């Protein structure tokens, strides 16, 4: 899953890839089955996706397509190598939900390979931490995160949580209330449509905190200024 593009033949559509996977394993290969698997991983307009070639899809779409093909296989054992790489946080959550569902309904086991300790904390029961090609610590998730023993697992950056730099709630740096923003887009006809990228968003940023508004890849690609936070807003200081 770490390099999904290399897993697909550029001469074949997604329909051919998915159908061949099913036929090779003696699984149903009808369009309804293929469509259901594609929709399960959050790819919109499954009928269109099946007609696409690998070079017409983004890395994130190909990654989700790989997982869809794994769903079609109904494998008794799953090897998930970096399943959330290159996916936005919304897609990541959807993929993790999907993997959990597969584990509950189909697979008795999963080998998860990842550098994302948040994914480990959510999906894994037991963890084997490797450093320089060797397992340095192994145990259940709660013990490893709450009482790590090795110098690698005791490093501050190993776990996703970190102490606040200035202490929580000392000072409010930014207070946003009801922020909305839209972009106009249209063709040569002169008729413009307005698409909202922020709709009544409110948030507060305090010293020592990190606030991370999350969006989809579609937002980042179509409206990079909004995704990057480069919107012109007026700030008012309260005394």
Automatic annotation (TrEMBL):
Catalytic activity: a dipeptide(out) + ATP + H2O = a dipeptide(in) + ADP + phosphate + H(+)
GO molecular function, one term: ATP binding
UniProt keyword annotation of Disulfide bond present: no
Compartments (UniProt record): Membrane
Keywords: ATP-binding, Cell membrane, Hydrolase, Membrane, Nucleotide-binding, Transport
SUPFAM superfamilies: P-loop containing nucleoside triphosphate hydrolases (SSF52540)
Domain ABC transporter: 13-85
Main location as per UniProt: membrane
The family this protein is said to belong to: Belongs to the ABC transporter superfamily.
Identification of the protein by name: ABC-type dipeptide transporter
Biological source species: Escherichia coli
Record gene name: nikD_2
């Amino acid at each position: 899953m770490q390099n999904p593009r290399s897993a697909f033949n550029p001469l074949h559509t997604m329909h051919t890839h998915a159908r061949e996977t099913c036929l090779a394993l003696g699984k149903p290969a009808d369009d309804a089955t293929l469509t259901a698997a594609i929709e399960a991983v959050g790819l919109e307009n499954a009928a269109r996706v099946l007609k696409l070639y690998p070079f017409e899809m983004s890395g994130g779409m190909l990654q989700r397509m790989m997982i869809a093909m794994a769903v079609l296989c109904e494998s008794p054992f799953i090897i998930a190598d970096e399943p959330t790489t290159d996916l936005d946080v919304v897609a990541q959550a959807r993929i993790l939900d999907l993997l959990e569902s597969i584990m509950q309904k189909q697979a008795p086991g999963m080998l998860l390979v990842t550098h994302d300790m948040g994914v480990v904390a959510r999906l894994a029961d037991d963890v084997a931490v490797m450093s320089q090609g060797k397992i340095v610590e192994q145990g259940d998730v709660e013990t490893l995160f709450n009482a790590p023993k090795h110098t690698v697992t005791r490093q501050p950056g190993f776990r996703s949580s970190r102490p606040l730099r200035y202490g929580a709630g000392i000072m409010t740096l930014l207070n946003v209330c009801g922020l909305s923003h839209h972009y106009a887009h249209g063709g040569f006809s002169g008729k413009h449509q307005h698409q909202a990228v922020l709709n009544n968003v409110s948030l507060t940023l305090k010293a020592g905190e990190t606030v991370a508004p999350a969006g989809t890849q579609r937002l980042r690609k179509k409206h990079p200024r909004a995704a990057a936070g480069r919107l012109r807003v007026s700030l008012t200081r309260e005394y």
